[in-house]
# Entry
Amino acid sequence: MKTKQVERKGTYLRAFRAAFPYTVPVLTGYLFIGMAFGVMIQEKGYNFLWAMLMSLVIYAGSGQYLAVNFFAPGVSLLNVIFMEFMVNIRHIFYGLSLLERFSKMGKKRLYMIFSLTDETYSLFFVTKVPKDVKEEQFLFAIAVLDQSYWIIGSGIGALLGNVLPFSTEGIDFAMTALFVVIMVEQWMEKQNRPSVVIGLVCGLVCRLVFGADNFILPTMICVMVILLSCKKIFDKMIPEDGKEGGEPECQ
# Structure
């Protein structure tokens, strides 16, 4: 029994070691973005423990940035629920695309659903699982590492904000900057470029049609419909042996 436990710990350790290099871009981004969140929540009068606790049990990224604005009297609970739902509604589409992979992960699938941020979702799709590591352990390691970066960054930011107070105006743009970095990383892999183009085109069209305040949900729906309709095409474009697939037409 002990031998099996030791072997299992060894496989998880190997998975974390294999996953860490792939999460370095998220590490650098989450530390600074988490610090920005920590500074913002500290300005509302909450210390670093509250910042880290919020990042541990909520872990919503942009949703946490938005939530800071609700730490004021007179804000209705229904308004908070609606705004947070609209900001994080994209995660519904993320989850739909990962149902099959998560169904094989047993009890860990609950945490995997909880930990599904934009950056973690991107890594799940652009990162190849090493041959000597189990997929479920590798994905779990990515999720845990990413959240740990966010928690640590939140705590550091709240501490620094208390010691070195400064203006937080424009600091939430760090989240947008990280999204741009992730998009560029995906563009560097040739098989990912069609999905990037689809996202950009759908976003631009919906922005023109629905306006700046209402284009996110229509964009996600359009992207999901297109990607699901052409799923077989994109599956064939993912290289299994270092070579790209053909270029079949969409049916």
In short: The CA atoms of residues 57 and 114 lie 9 Å apart. The longest helix spans residues 2-43. Residues 241-251 have pLDDT under 50 and may be disordered.
